[in-house]
Amino acid sequence: MKRIVFIIFFLLLTGNVFAQDTLVINKPYIPYPDTTLIFTPGNNSQLSEMPLVFLLNGWSGNYAQWNIITDVQSYSDKYKMIIVCPDGFYDSWYLDNPFEPRVQFERFFWKDLVPKILQKYKVDTTKIFISGLSMGGHGAMTLFLKHPDFFLSAGSTSGILDLTAFPEKWGIKKGIGNYKDFPKVWKINSAIYLLQNIVGMNKQIIFDCGTEDFSYDVNNHFRAKCRKLKIKATFISQPGNHSPEYWHHSIKAHFEFFNNLITNTK
Question: For the chain, what is the mean pLDDT?
Answer without folding.
Answer: 90
